[in-house]
Design goal:
The chain is built from ten helices and six strands. The protein is of the alpha+beta class and 243 residues long. Helix 1 runs antiparallel to helix 4, helix 2 packs across helix 4 and helix 3 packs across helix 4.
Amino acid sequence: MIKTLFISISIFLNNLSQFDISQEEKDKLVAEVIRYVLFKTHQNSGCPIKRDELTQLVTKNYRQRALPALVINAAREKLSTIFGYEMKELQRSRPSSTNQGRTSQQSFADVKSYVIISQLPADVYRKYVEDVNTAHLTGFTFVIVSIVYLAGGKIAEDGLWHHMRRMGLYENEENHPVLGNIKQALEALVQQRYLQKDKVNGPEGNTLFYELAERALDEAISKKIKEYISQIVQNDGASADVE
């Protein structure tokens, strides 16, 4: 890892000479991007940060076109080697109805964004980093994403609420003892890009669907969901055998 870091620094310094800025200026830009990413992640409960936001941090004082990419890459490297976070790039996914040429509720330009993911082993993260006060939100996210996954990656709004009501989560509930406003908790999953909403025109009018978005489609998340579902099926089978 140390050898890789030295190679990355060497390449970065070579590239830096092309932009007519000092090492000190570069370090300040990288630090500013890192501070912004960490602050926004905490402030917005893990919502993705658009690449344009990071680009503007660099271009507000510097006009070199390729400089933002260089600074963002350096920030990603430092977040990984010093803070233990992967700054993962997300490519905004499009709802299936958009791919079929139907009208959709949202605008779906190919917007790049980033989220930070801990690189610590799961047991170490749970012991030293994980906030027990937000564990219920992680559980809620996992369950809702699993429901949509089992529905084939897409489910009508009425169908999703049907499953949620079976768990005691109601759309008109604003003071749930754990989740608070249930509609807002569900909307947060859209803002965090675990889900996306898609309004489809049909013979009976508009139908709102919830569909897996890029974070839920991530290979690591999909693997955990499959393991979780497999475990439930095995437990159900064991219970049936006992009965």
